[in-house]
Design a protein that fits this description.
alpha/beta, Alkaline Phosphatase, subunit A, 7-stranded mixed sheet, two-stranded antiparallel ribbon, 9 strands
Length: about 300
Amino acid sequence: MSNGRSVAARRIALAAVWAACIALGCEREREPAPIPEPPPMADPRAPSSAIPQHPELAPANVLLIMIDSLRGEMPWTGYPRDVVPRIDAFRREHCVTYAKAYSLSSYTAKSVAPALRGEYPSAMLRDGYFFTRYPDDANEFIQEMAQKRGLRTLASHAHGYFSPTFGLNQGFADYRLLKHGVDLAAVHSITSAPLTELAIEQLSDRGNVAQDAGKRFFAYVHYMDPHHTYEPHPEFSFGVRTARDLYDGEVRFTDHWVGKLLDFVQEQAWWRDTTVIITADHGESFGERGHYRHGFEL
């Protein structure tokens, strides 16, 4: 889903949706409007003044929020549990919803970097390891494109795969990991609260978000808690009878902290010039076709 406080912001989001959010297809929650007839093609022999010109779009800030292992089953796609009340409220007020989700791959290392590139992982130069590296000189990512165009680029992360050693920091001017350290293999840590604090700290830095002379930023925040292992959160519990119950509690816990970040963003002077994109890197299996968790099968 994405929001924009102005027509220009919504239009500028389309570029980010392709390069940073390619995992989501597009479908409105109403009957589709008839497709209009395309306008006649301009005569290439006509003088340039006769060819319709589009006004230049004003630039927008972009905040990309990616939630790890988040299934496509949401209240707006028919899932009966209210797993994301804060995101759903934000969606209802501000957003266009893309309800058909297509992951680029089955786990983070083959999904995140390709999403930031707007490519399939098979089309990118990379190594063959599970924690995949994508050589900087062979792959230009959206944050690098944004940086070349004068945007301030920043990111906040909560997992060891995003450590600079794996190279996903390329193109980010301000790249931060949780101050108390990050897991690399299993995801036992509960990180949504400190990650939200880190992102707010980063987005409070005037050097990152100053809008002087039309300056804009591209920010990326990656939440991890829905990822296995599924830790219990009593305040957000759906019971603990099954793994899916625990997972849904993790999703609702993460939603609570994403809501805190969205509250902060909407209080800022730059909010009206900001587009927010909320998406996932891949989903999670709970027995469909004999599959469980993620990263083992497509």
